[in-house]
Design a protein that fits this description.
6 helices; 162 residues; two-stranded antiparallel sheet
């Protein structure tokens, strides 16, 4: 499959093909060359970050100028101000606002990444499984993290092989 064919396949199954392509490309960049698997963690600056969180953080720059992100910043600042928890130091207050905004963006970003991955699985470009501890919990993914395996078809298209 060629790269244009890969993009066409993604566009056929995903309502957000550009986003899904970016997710696929990021997964391919961190996938183990031997197995083609990425996750459950990405090591960055000697820290183990869950793959989905790493993907979310990697895609945050795409939303920096987004009006919704600016609205979230304003909402968080107002909320923290109403609760009277913002420090008087301007730099410390900005750090607090940024931390809360990052947490909210990451929560919604995990959902966006999961939707994009589901589209890529439907397109036959990724396989997904979970790794970690299974516990009795209403959330079937409790204490487990996602592992994504890029298919040979997708890897060949991204690497320029037909």
């Amino acid at each position: 499959m060629s790269l244009p064919g890969l993009i066409e396949r993604i566009a056929d199954v995903s309502p957000r093909p550009r986003y899904a392509f970016m997710v696929l490309n990021l997964i391919a960049k961190v996938a183990n060359n031997n197995s083609g698997s990425a996750g459950p963690y990405v090591v960055e600056h000697d820290r183990r970050i869950p793959l989905r969180d790493w993907l979310c953080d990697s895609l945050v720059p795409m939303a920096k100028r987004d009006a919704r992100r600016l609205a979230i910043v304003n909402e968080v600042r107002s909320s923290l101000n109403r609760m009277n928890v913002l420090p008087s130091d301007v730099d410390a207050a900005e750090r607090m606002v940024e931390e809360e905004v990052r947490a909210r963006v990451r929560r919604s970003g995990r959902c966006n990444v999961s939707r994009a991955v589901s589209d890529l699985v439907r397109a036959g470009l990724l396989r997904r499984h979970y790794q970690g501890f299974r516990v009795d919990h209403h959330n079937r993914g409790a204490q487990r993290e996602a592992v994504y395996t890029i298919t040979a078809l997708a890897a060949g298209a991204l690497n320029g092989r037909k």
